[in-house]
Sequence to fold (328 residues):
Amino acid sequence: MTDLSRLSGNRFVIIGRAGMDLYPDPPGTRTVDATHFFSCLGGSSANIAVAITRQGGHCALVTRVSDDAIGRFALKELDKYGIDRSHVTPVGGEARNSLAIVESRVEDHQSVIYRNGAADFQMTEADVSAVDYASYSALITTGTVLAAEPSRSAAFTAFDQARSAGLPLIFDIDYRPYSWASPDEAAEIYSQAGALCDVIVGNDVEFGFMAGGYDKGLAKARDLARQGAAIVVYKMGEKGAITLTADGEFRTGIFAVDALKPTGAGDSFMGGFIASLAAGHGLRDAVLRGSASASIVVSKVGCAPAMPTTAELDKFLADHPGPTEVIG
Fold:
């Protein structure tokens, strides 16, 4: 098992997409009625990088973006948040950047994500081999990078090279059915990736998918913890989370808020959780800080721009009555 104390170096290399999110404006507007939109950085890996950076970490992103106005928008946004993009490569031709239309509303919420000919799937083994893994504290990836070639092979190459450099591997399952050729293929590849990783985070639906049935998801998470993962976080939405280690498991609640939208919680949880571990917080406290980060983001417009700073997170925790009671 890789030593997770290396996380204290607070320098992370993150593999996966950066894109553009468009939110109908003002908040509450349905897309079909929209005449104005608010734009911001999108893509799960880029969002995680922003979340960690805003809480004091250093992040480098490895991906490809389209060599057009949308790709250049993503690059400019990465610069704005102070994310190292020296390993972000523009790609021409028919490749297109990830683009999402996301409503800032909970009731009848609509999110439409465009991934046809996705530029980030063009990431190659040469791209990931150019990284000096020894200079980082951990490798973080989201499951989306595994959905197509050459990105899939590149990601597994990155796993091998990061492991050789002694880095912990951190995996956000992030299952998006529309990116995969079939559910069976996705379950097989995710299980292969999960078996290699030290920290695995996903929700109950995602673990259930990996296990071949929703009712088998928690057993799958427990198996991954027994088979070598140092930390597995099994998220259950409003019911909180179960965190599993070789020493046992514990449950935590959520921080109730008036949500503006249902999206962004997973990325903000991962960012807040990893940033808190890097800052020296204990495991339970890190899970709770990740949960609080998620609550902050769903109560605001956007994902990347809503990620809390450490000071904002600390104030939220000081002002909030605390997490929901855990039952069971």
The domain at 4-17+44-88+119-319 is CATH 3.40.1190.20 (UDP-N-acetylmuramoyl-L-alanine:D-glutamate ligase). The radius of gyration is 18 Å.
